[in-house]
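Worked Example 4.2. Consider the chain below.
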Amino acid sequence: MTDVERQGVDPRMSQVVVFGDLIWLSGQCGTAFDSTANQARDALEKIERYLSEAGSEKSRILSTAIWLTDISDYDAVNEVWDAWIPAGCAPARSCGETKIGGEGYSVEIICVAAKSA
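Applying the procedure from the previous section yields the following structure tokens:
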């Protein structure tokens, strides 16, 4: 039986859960009250770091959900995303508008990735 590995655990959640060859990341946000583009950059930097610590990289992301507090920020986030994701490695992705937990946050990014070979 494969064990479940949890990283960055606190009483409410784990930042990373690894099961077999799959890695789930909790929602990542940037610095509250910063611009949405800067929050997206910060969140993607965290994702890259967590994936590396779990044995993967951004080219191995399988699925991503992006939540925005204001869908009018869609183009700004896409500009950051397009510069970050390697060509030919775009995952299945969704993007929607919702309230995000915590005051001052305008974007949250969640992803699932495969471990590197």
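The mean pLDDT is 96. The two ends are 20 Å apart (CA to CA). Compare this with Example 4.1 before moving on.
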